[in-house]
Fold this protein.
Amino acid sequence: MFAAALLDRAAALIAACGERRLKIATAESCTGGLVAGLLTEIPGSSAAFERGFVVYSNLAKQEMLGVPEATIMTWGAVSAETARAMAEGALDRSAADLAVAITGIAGPDGGTAEKPVGLVHFAAARRGHPTHLVEKRFGLLTRQSIRLASVETALELLEQAAA
């Protein structure tokens, strides 16, 4: 399912985090658990992967990660503010040291002029460090392409957070 190069990067991340005794959590909306799937594809991933949250609905974001309803109502589920709350909530509700959050519009429907298909917000959090936010506009790719590009971006953010 995942390209060999992506699997190699995931294996390197798992090894590095295992050596540093860093645990990873994921908080995923539009990727539906693909980042967790990539990481757990690696043999021995339990040395670094702590847990994954798949929070597709707004209610799931609130209940599982503690995202304030006001954040979603004010900024929307697809926003930097919600991504930040997801990543920080994943740290608060796990034993992980690092967390990555992904929320976006993978399409083919659901986009607006302000928030088009292909818009994805990411947040990477590490205990004791500022949360890093990234916005990507992947454009009108296929749903699968947007989701896989999001997995690659999330992996990159975890690599940076672990360094």
